Amino acid sequence: MDKAWVWLPRASREYVEGATNFVTASSRRFGNPSEIFCPCIDCRNVCHQLVDTVVDHLVIKGMDKKYMRNSCWSMHGERKSDISDSVPTSETEAYDLLRTAYFTGEGSPQPSNNIGGESEEGETTEDSEFRKKLRDAETPLYSTCSNYTKVSAIMGLYRIKVKSGMSENYFDQLLTIVHDMLPKDNVLPKSTDAMKKFLKIFGFGYDVIHACKNDCILYRKQFDKMESCPRCSASRWEMDKHSGEEKKGIPAKVLRYFPIKDRFRRMFRSKRIAEELRWHSSNASEDGTMRHPVDSISWAQVNEKWPEFALDP
């Protein structure tokens, strides 16, 4: 992929042609969708924009500096198989992130002297169980399959479900027919629930907490057993729209909470990821210019208020 045009003046004809060719080629790689990720300074590959709008943004605003210097424009279809130490961006991104906490190279266990890690002899039951599940996840989709492992197939299909807004009912039907199409020894789950349980093993799940429909409280801790909100008296349960009766056991509103502690623990097992997570402790600005939240007044106030917490990067 030609990247020389990004360093040219944005008012030049060569820059405009380069931006147009880049967007056109990227769109073609993804099957000519109407929208793609916009890498301009404002959008920064966080949101999709119309193809023509992406060109306009690149010409008017310019490309995000970090993405300009990136050796692989993976968000726009560039392959990174020949580039080492790049950050995963495929559907297996989160899985690969956790995998580095336990393995290095081709499936070999990670040395026990990694940051935050314990020796394999002293690992907890939870860690041991996680290792077993990780090995199970890396089994081929079926005995002669070389392109997909169990986890890559699951995450690829689940990504389609999420992006297309497919209902669980239709997705269950899809899983069933795909399972029947594959060889008999395939390990693809047959239902959405089974898939969710599998993904939850690797920290991709979430906790469901009942909430007051008026956002007064969460039904946890001292409110865990209550049937109605102590502040607004609203029922905890959903009401039937026709009869007005309570549907016991069906919450009126839920909060989906993604636990962070276990994820951080696994991420800190990887020496490379641990260094990146502690970047703020050694890269604060020295010239008074704010380049990161660590350089802000708010960060300094937090450090001052909780000094013991601040001492541990």
Please specify the SSE layout and strand pairing.
Blueprint (H helix, E strand, L loop, with lengths): L12 H17 L5 E3 L10 E3 H10 L4 H5 L23 H7 L3 E2 L3 E2 L15 H13 L12 H15 L3 H14 L10 H9 L6 E5 L25 E3 L6 E6 L1 E5 L3 H7 L3 H7 L19 H9 L1 H5 L2
Antiparallel strand pairs: 1-2, 3-4, 5-8, 6-7
Quick overview of this protein structure:
With 313 residues, the chain is mainly α. The chain is built from twelve helices and eight strands. The strands form four sheets. It has a two-stranded antiparallel sheet.
- Cα Rg: 24 Å
Q: Low-confidence segments, ≥5 residues, pLDDT <50?
A: 82-91, 104-119
First and last CA, distance: 39 Å
Query: How many individual helices?
Result: 12
Structural class by helix and strand composition: mainly alpha
Across the major sheet, the strand order is: 1-2
What about the largest sheet?
A: 2 strands, antiparallel
Bin the helical content: 25-40%
Q: Estimate what percentage of residues fall within beta strands.
A: 5-15%
Encode the helix/strand succession as letters: HEEHHHEEHHHHEEEEHHHH
Mean pLDDT: 81
The gross shape turns out to be: globular
User: What's the number of extended β-strand segments?
Assistant: 8
